[in-house]
Specification:
This protein is α/β, with parallel strands linked by helices. Helix content is 37%, strand content 20%. It is built from five helices and five strands; from the N terminus they run H-E-H-E-H-H-E-H-E-E. The longest helix is centred in the middle third of the chain and has 13 residues, at 60-72. The chain is globular. The mean pLDDT is 94.
């Protein structure tokens, strides 16, 4: 049921690994609700918060992390609330299947929003919290 790792996902993971910025990674679930962040857990030396539909998760900690990811990727957040939540979760990078959720576009248009693009191959998008 889960996405097979592809070159785009690997390149996104490498972009994060190449950064000298400390902090964790939050990965949004894909459009089917699948926890693609598990790949990032395998490819990173950083903490990873994996977004997912809860029905795909078996452990309470996984479900808690999925809820946390949902709060970070809430498309209705203002810049300050997002900044506070990201800092509380120690999240420095956000990974988004680019066309599965376009809330990132509003973030990019709002100059107050504390994110910048560090990887974009038109499939996967990695934003750094600044």
């Amino acid at each position: 049921f889960y996405q097979v790792v592809d070159p785009s996902l690997v390149h996104a993971a490498h972009a994060i690994a190449a950064s000298d910025q400390p902090g964790g990674v939050a990965v949004r679930q894909d459009r089917r609700g699948w926890p693609i962040g598990w790949w990032f857990e395998a490819l990173q030396e950083r903490p990873v918060i994996v977004g997912s539909d809860p029905r795909w998760l078996g452990f309470p900690d996984e479900r808690a992390n999925a809820r946390l990811a949902d709060t970070l990727f809430d498309g209705h957040l203002d810049a300050e609330t997002f900044r506070t939540r990201a800092a509380a979760a120690n999240v420095r990078f956000l990974v988004i299947p680019k066309w599965d959720w376009i809330g990132w576009d509003r973030w990019q248009r709002d100059e107050r929003f504390p994110v910048r693009v560090v990887f974009d191959d038109d499939v996967m998008l990695v934003l750094q919290v600044v």
